[in-house]
Design brief:
Rossmann fold, alpha/beta, Glutathione S-transferase Yfyf (Class Pi), Chain A, domain 2, 9 strands, about 300 residues, 3-stranded parallel sheet, 4-stranded parallel sheet
Length: about 300
């Protein structure tokens, strides 16, 4: 059964390279990925500050659509979407009065949310449903020259964990890329906040947080930062580019984990949307060496 794909707003806008690389990677692996028809914004965090019931109803509509369409597990790449969709499943399952109010709202659209479809992150899908052994078998290009600083951010680790991993020291991306021949650096701030939407409301705070994250990667001689979140990618990409222009510091390209994985699987840079990054990626994924064919001995 194909996975049901919930891109959310970012992946159809500023995070388009995440969308492209998601589709490219799943396509290379032969995994069905069908975009949820008529999906709407998950509400992010702003809706909760307006009216809680409305916010849950807006998010639950996507869950109801996934159930109605009869597709597979709902895959949400955006960390905010992943967190909020799972939060909605949890709260509706534990609060009967809230669930009744949401059910009444959904009924006006002839929808029902039975909470029967799990919400999953693509990192977890690729690690658990596919696995590093199969990913390595599908690899056609070497990423041995990559030294990624693997950055998870906040929302896929707490309160609902996308991976069966230590929420303080997750290692899923490190394990993935090490299995494919890369050399992930030791990156202690892997779960720190990038500032998120503070970039629009308290810019000086977000800038300081992002500068620290970039600085850690530079100190460890990383040649790219790899993340799972479109907001994290956007903040670090913009701040990294600004630092390069203003201070002349060493720029570090900021990739989605699906982009680096896609390079290993033989996808082109254009297929993966790498051209959309503000900081050029200068490291190459080179063709894997071909084992020489065995030469038969003459009798």
């Amino acid at each position: 059964m194909p996975y049901t794909y919930y891109p959310g707003c970012s992946l159809h806008a500023t995070g388009v390279s995440y969308d492209k690389s998601m589709r490219a990677v799943f396509g290379k692996l032969g995994l069905g990925l069908e975009e949820l028809d008529d999906w709407n914004c998950c509400g992010a965090t702003s809706y909760m500050s307006v009216k809680e019931t409305v916010a849950f109803a807006i998010t639950a509509r996507n869950l109801a659509l996934a159930e109605k369409n009869g597709g597979g597990d709902l895959v949400a790449p955006c960390s905010a979407c992943y967190a909020l969709l799972n939060k909605t499943r949890k709260f509706l399952g534990e609060a009967p009065a809230l669930r009744a109010d949401v059910a009444e709202a959904l009924a006006e659209d002839d929808l029902e949310c039975r909470l029967s479809v799990p919400v999953r992150h693509p990192l977890e899908v690729l690690m658990n449903d596919v696995g590093t052994e199969r990913l390595a078998a599908a690899q056609t290009r070497s990423i041995a020259d990559f030294r990624p600083a693997c950055y998870y951010g906040c929302q896929i680790l707490r309160p609902q964990r996308a991976m069966d991993d230590d929420p303080e020291v997750p290692m899923a991306m490190e394990d993935l890329f090490a299995a494919l021949g890369a050399e992930p650096v030791d990156y202690p701030p892997r779960t720190r906040c990038c500032g998120g939407m503070l970039m629009a409301t308290a810019e000086e705070v977000a800038v300081k947080l992002c500068e620290e994250l970039i600085g850690w990667a530079q100190e460890r001689d990383a040649n790219c930062i790899v993340t799972v979140c479109p907001l994290c990618q956007g903040n670090l990409d913009i701040l990294g580019r600004r630092a390069e222009l203003v201070g002349g510091g060493r720029p570090i390209p900021v990739l989605y984990f699906t982009q680096l994985l896609g390079l290993a699987l033989g996808c082109t840079r254009r297929e993966l949307g790498i051209q959309h990054g503000l900081i050029p990626l200068t490291v190459e994924a080179r063709p894997l060496p071909v084992e020489p064919a065995a030469v038969g001995m003459e009798a």
